[in-house]
Amino acid sequence: MENTQTARIINRFKSLNLSEGKIYILGNRIELYYLLDKLPPVWNTLIMKIGNDYYLDVESRTIREIKRGKVMYIVIPKPIDANFVPLVDLTTYISKFYTPLYEDKDVQIL
Fold it and tell me: Of 22, 49, 82, 88, whose CA is between 20 and 30 Å from 75?
């Protein structure tokens, strides 16, 4: 694997024996789904600003899909993707309903 941070995140996730259950990756790092052999539980795996706005319902839709999909783990690669920083409703939901399991310089896993 060329990206050493990606390799460390994958190895850490696997070493924590978290392979059972669905994950959501908070960030535009869709390669992590592939390398962990997981399907994304949400429709919008990539979130980008369009002009000064996001898709109108990207936060509420993502929250609904996380709930409906019974996501067990949230993976937050560091630094947090700038496209996700303004998504206050989503990050508030995650911090309210998920407990930190692991954190280092590369990733936080809840």
Answer: 49
Helices (H), 1-110: 4-15, 31-35, 58-68, 88-97
H/E segment holding residue 6: helix 4-15
Average pLDDT over the chain reads: 87
Contact 101/16 with Cβ under 8 angstroms?
Answer: yes
Residue with tokens 């309903």: 97
Q: Position 87: which residue type?
A: L
75 closest CA partner among 86, 31, 55: 31
Q: 33 and 40 in contact (C-beta within 8 Å)?
A: yes
Q: Do 107 and 6 meet the contact criterion of CB atoms below 8 Å apart?
A: no
